[in-house]
Amino acid sequence: MDHDASEAERLAAVRGHLARLVARDDWLPEELAQPHPQHYRQYLLHADPLERFSVVSFVWGPGQRTPVHDHTVWGLIGMLRGEEIAQNFAYDAAGCLVPAGPAQRLHPGEVEAVSPTLGDIHQVSNAFDDRTSISIHVYGANIGAVHRWVYAPDGTRKPFVSGYSNTWVPNLWDRSKETT
Fold first, then answer.
1. What is the pTM of this model?
2. Distance between CA atoms of 166 and 154, rounded to whole angstroms?
């Protein structure tokens, strides 16, 4: 992160590291792989002290999904366990959000990218209704502290800050309660 690089160069460099990480499913501590019965969890695994990047585990209970949302920064998603389905969205001529292309299914070991330049608005869901799925994400910021948006079907948006699900480590960057 200390070197000036284009987004494409950075994504390519980080993609290889993430692919190696999710190629094996024997390293994630159990306490960072626990689903919640009502909603997905985002556990902080590592945050750069300068907030240039973060690594998180997303733990999806059976049938869980995100709202339609964006990231505002580059990100890579590596599938560790189970599978996810991601549906990209784009604005139509009337300013409404509509699905953009077919939904993409991410299998264990696969890595996908998101960013404002590649397409940043999507909805993600656990592909399974009967088991947990886990993905590992690397973002170009401290994603739990980034001011982002969730979107309604009519294209209106509401601000949010995701925070993290960790309760056993000091969460120095949790800004999810901020209102501005």
1. 0.90
2. 33
